[in-house]
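Q: Start with the shorter request: fold the first protein.
A: Done. Sequence, then structure:
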Amino acid sequence: MKRIIYIFLFLLSASHVYSQKILEVQQEFKQDTTRIESHVRSAFLANTADFVQCMNYLFDEYDKLLNKYYRLLMSNLNEEGKAALKSAQMNWIKFQTADRKLLDNISMQVYKNVGGGTMSNYISDPLYGYIVKDRAIELYNYYSAIVESKYE
């Protein structure tokens, strides 16, 4: 009977460790993204310069988050997984570069269609930030899956 109680207590404590680690990972990601999104939402965009500064912040902060979760994921993968992640990230960078060219082209067409204006030049800026944001979320989800699998 004592053995069963010890096993139960062990499983209960292991479950708590699992829950705690998963919660920490989730909370940290939520804090990081909330900080970025709150800054962008609360930014006072009185002119084009404010808009550009806000979009640069969005891009830079999600780029930092992307790199953070890339490193965390990389440190939790076996050698084969590391090679696959490195290859996937290199391909994503190629995609991002090609997509930026497309967005720049679309932005210029819109600029011409609407007859110019200072904001017309920055139509694609938010999209750059959200491309990086989407990748950061993907890497976080992969990392989160690895962390969860360690505690199951």
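Q: Next, the second protein, separately.
A: Sequence, then structure:
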Amino acid sequence: MYRPPRDPRHALSALAALCLLLAAPETSAAPAKRFKTVGSGLIKIRSTKNRHRFSGRYRSARGAYLEAARRRICRVFGAPYGRLEGRISWRLIELLAHLRDVHKGGWIIVSSGYRGPRYNRRLRAKGRTVALASLHQYAMAADLRITGCLLYT
């Protein structure tokens, strides 16, 4: 049997807690977008350098990112998964998936993904056009094309 609280302050506290509970979003609701540009949660990506490939889901239906997928995508880019600075960012993965979705492409073909600082210095020493502070060194850039997507007509 319910007994109302004797002290009116307790009643106000209970009412405030009820209002907060009703105002809170449902846990089953779709998660808010983490980035401005997002893909469908599916990606097909492969490398011309190391022949690794990944085709599958990188984000669950509830919006959680799947680390096992990122580990495999890092392998495609040739990026060290164990080091945070060389790990492919979720923002880049979302952007690539978005581009693939918008252009209704097939595979994302990576010709140059992660390049470590030492490899970058060697390319510059050979006379290649490589930026001194290339974003490839931080796994934030990629040279790629999307099959089935015409950029120039």
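Q: Describe the second briefly.
A: The beta strands are 42-47, 53-57, 108-112, 143-146. Residues 1-5, 7-32 have pLDDT under 50 and may be disordered.
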